[in-house]
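hey team, just a heads up i'm posting the complex here instead of the shared drive bc the drive is being weird again. everything in one block, sequence lines first with there labels, then the predicted structure for the whole assembly after. its two chains so it's a bit long, scroll down
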Amino acid sequence: MPIPVLMPALSPTMEEGTLLKWLVSEGDKVEAGDVIAEIETDKATMEVEAVDEGTIGKLLMGEGTEHIAVNKPIALILEEGEDDTAVSNFEADAPPQPAVTQTAPEPVAAATAAPETAAQPPPAIETRAAEARATAPQSNGQGGAPFASPLARRLARENKLDLAAITGSGPHGRIVRRDIEQAIAQGVGVAPAAAAPSVGQVMPAQGQPPAPPAMSDEAILALYEPGTYEVVPIDKMRRIIATRLTQAKLSIPHFRLEVDCEIDALLAARKRLNAMSPAEGPKVFKISVNDMIIKAMAMALQKVPAANATWTEQGILRHKGSDIGVAVAIEGGLFTPLIRHAEIKSLSEISNEMQDLAGRARERRLAPHEYQGGTTAISNLGMMGIKSFDAVINPPHATILAVGAGERRPVVEGDEIRIATIMSCTLACDHRVVDGALGAELLGAFKEFIEEPVTMLV
Amino acid sequence: MSETSFDFAVIGAGPGGYVAAIRAAQLGFKTVIIEREHLGGICLNWGCIPTKALLRTSELFHTLNNAEQFGLSINEISFDIEKIVERSRKIAGRLASGVAYLMKKNKIEVVDGEARLKGGGMIGVRDKNGEVLPDIQAKHILIATGARAKTLPGLEPDGDLIWTYREAMVPPAMPGSLLVVGSGAIGIEFASFYGTLGAEVTVVEVLDRILPVEDEEVSAFAQKAFEKQGMTILTGTTVESLEAGVGEVRVRLKSNDGATREHTVDRVILAIGITGNVEGLGLEELGIQVDRGHIVIDEWCRTAADGVYAIGDVVGPPWLAHKASHEGVICVERIAGLNDVHPLDRSRIPGCTYCAPQVASIGLTEAAAIEAGHQIKVGRFPYQANGKAIALGETEGFVKTVFDAETGELLGAHMIGTEVTELIQGFSIAKTLETTEAELIESIFPHPTLSETMHEAVLDAYGRALHI
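-- predicted structure starts here --
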């Protein structure tokens, strides 16, 4: 029987998506791993790969179809020996595990197909093989019922967690107890009804901000003369930004710390380092000031580990590595891809990784794991000439560093005035995790690394 | 030896070391294993396997002595201790040569000699005669040197009248009376072997119960069963002194309430625990920490020295061959960067003692579960109510299960009775698959088998036992 291709869940919180583009047509032969479609999710455009080989029997969703629920069939792949009669036996709007629920009509299709090639296995075996493949957990959320141990299923039920949002670490991606425990600790996969207490990584499933807007749309529209504006539809990214950052401002007790850093030594070091890059080849690098800021922040978090933390209702997560988010502006919004373990990476590694991530962010081709997690982020508007500003913490982070432009400014030293290149940095802290003194300690450590860049090498 | 440079070097060819070597070879590492005595280590040569051979004899002896019960008549049953030991040694020899074959099949270089770490991935080796062999270089070095019997001042073996497991395995003659010091698995297995063959056996245990790592109910049941067989069990008792005389040992015992008494026995077996073989390896020079006779490792079996790992008995309890093998596989797979490798989960290591009746367990005891803060449900089912056990004439024993009342997680299972060592794997798989009581209740157990007692013990925890 035909193997359904299901709408994949490309991120733990994805509930629906838009079918952007088909890269195959009906009748095309595909192999496992072939890219067959592009899907637009909350934040990114992702490719869908075929998980089985066969012939594309039917494309069930047209290009541009929006709001396709996760696990809904989007196409049918015919296995060898199957023809279109198998497709006609298949209803597109079948429940989430179509291959299993469609077992009743299946023998008919198999029986008609059987006489064509004598070498074919008996229908019953064929059926079972197809079922096994269709229900096997190709990846989390792509194959019907979540693949989880009985204990994990029960713990998820008791803790009101959505298994589809949890990644399994057991054999073949099976969700086991430790995954549930980790999800509880990180606030991942909280079913919508129970979402309130944990900000964590809860994304707005329904696209509705948590708090009622201060004014109704009607009241706002009434203030402006019709025809004096145009309405730009809110896309998914805009919706996510609106919801998450509103939630962040409402639920996180922010406070801010500001510091001026002298960056002349850093600029000199950068110049010398970049002069050492090979002219061409894979090891070419061009380190930016921002790359050095990433490294300094990563080192500062190692020096002040109490600030490398995440608030959850179950307890504060103290992280071991410094995973630094870096805000990348893209058309229509922004991404915050992560440089993981930046504390152990060299500046050239950070620089090259950042270029890759920023490039793919602009193409909206980041995988969720590349921007989910981390404990802090860096938002740098220096290149836009901003002197200093403050940023909104991106949940579940504990801090965010807003970096202004490096400017030649007068500095008072003793009774003398000298000129130095100064960069103003503002650290916003989540007071639940980072108290004032702790934030000051972190920012102080950051300043030291920036002003004495050679200390980052230790 | 043709090559001196390897990806993976294993020191010690016991069940931890040789299994790690095979796994490493399977994953494409060029592997060498260095062993100073025999392939297979203590397990194959002086532990698990040869004792099982001895215990098979005592089990048959016991059954044949009860032949009448089965409608058989056998006039006279006698034994020849020399032949019993010979059979046990033959079996050990056969398995050791099996390991040699496995090494060859997996193209693992075997070096006979004693190893010493020299740092920088270099290993110095000396053969039995103290001759220096060429150094071996390896990217990764695994220490799997195992352990030996622990001794305490005043409790030292003399190899003649005061034995460790090693002498107890190859007795030149049957002792008439025997004192076993320590009631862990090793002590109890020898007590059972010699007791069944007719020796007058006394077991001394410092704690308040025998088999102290087992569930209290199992300890109590075992003690009763052994006493019924004629064993004397003295818990809460320590050995004050051992005095070897001519052909006998004078023993002074002191119970926890202060009372002392003297015994005279033919032989003494010391089974007061084991200590890691950490000497002469050059650990200190490499900064590898040793804590109370055991190498300190992290969850991935890494020592403090880069590229040096340790597994098995040398890193600490539980001192079980299957734990060592499992650690070896985890360690190697982690080094190879395989996905889905997880640290050893200690709640999933089954333990077996091959006395009569046998004892087997996995996970938390009832007391440990309560101490860990679980709300629990406990089920029990006796062998007496199991058809197969009655047919076998082996009605002594029971199965106990401990569940988390909230989640239905199987926290532990504790069994005593015939063949429970073969049955425990069912609960082992259940724990690894993270089954709850629901799946165990739904599982169909074949009738008539001893395994039905496992099903019933699960049912009983939920007030649903059928056959009692």
